[in-house]
Specification:
16% strand, binds zinc ion, globular, SIR2/SIRT2 'Small Domain', alpha/beta, Rossmann fold
Length: 261
């Protein structure tokens, strides 16, 4: 049995299988990556997008953020075969949760389309946990109201900087900025899922920053089968049971096909 077959086999017999994803799953959809050659931080100074700057200079922060959003989301991205495979395994009840570092919303889009395509069957809905928030929304820093990002970014582009809520509070992109804590409840949930998991798949993440680095280790130390699918090596490879250094859009549909047969 090769590594891929072993993962598929363990997913079939698992009570709880969990997937964790990073930028590498969205790169095949064309979503720009932040780091590396031609990454977003080659064109923008990441020091201008900190939580500290948002607090001290919301006007300048929003001015730069409008440019960043334009660069990142200048087209409508579509989920790829890897997002779709995870969504299909979630719908089929083989995947309990999808934890992601990404803020692009593509896991939600993929799930929506597989659920829409399966109206007659019995379906499951996996948990999607966006650890770093979502670029699709903004949140009022006073009353906490969340609303769609696009119209607020348009207002900011038209000169309302910073854009404000009806209550007068300043809107903040609903993503975790540099220097800002990840929401504690979300991190705790991710840690419990990693601990409870029988299979933990880490996909398209370099597993360097927290909590990405510790979640697969937590799963491994709780007895989970840990699989890593990533083009480059990661610091967690030696703790993993299976390492597949292959294209996520090739590997995940093959795992799904094995799981579904
Ligand atoms: Zn408000």
């Amino acid at each position: 049995m090769d590594g891929l077959e072993r993962l598929a086999d363990d997913i079939c017999s698992a009570a709880t299988a969990v997937a964790f994803t990073g930028a590498g799953i969205s790169a095949p959809s064309g979503v720009p990556t932040f780091r590396g050659d031609d990454g977003v931080w080659d064109k923008f100074d990441e020091g201008q997008f900190t939580y500290g700057r948002f607090r001290s200079d919301p006007e300048g922060f929003w001015e730069d953020r409008v440019d960043l959003q334009r660069e990142m989301f200048d087209e409508a991205y579509e989920p790829n075969a890897a997002h779709e495979a995870l969504a299909a395994m979630g719908r089929g009840g083989d995947l309990e949760a999808i934890l992601t570092q990404n803020t692009d919303g593509l896991h939600g889009d993929a799930l929506e389309s597989v659920l829409a395509g399966s109206a007659t069957e019995e379906t499951n809905e996996p948990t999607i946990l966006e650890l770093h928030g979502t670029s699709r929304r903004v949140r009022c820093t006073d009353c906490g109201k969340r609303t769609a990002a696009d119209p607020i970014f348009e207002r900011a582009a038209d000169g309302e900087r910073p854009p404000t809520c009806d209550c007068g509070g300043v809107y903040k992109p609903d993503v975790v900025l540099f220097g800002e804590q990840l929401p504690e409840a979300v991190v705790q949930r991710a840690r419990s899922l990693a601990r409870e998991s029988d299979v933990f798949l880490a996909i398209g993440s370099s597993l360097v920053v927290e909590p990405a680095a510790s979640l697969p280790r937590l799963a491994a130390s709780s007895g989970s089968t840990v699989g890593i699918v990533n083009l480059e090596s990661t610091p967690v490879d030696s703790d993993a049971d299976v390492v597949l250094r292959e294209d996520v859009t090739e590997v995940l549909p093959r795992i799904r096909d094995l799981v579904e047969t």
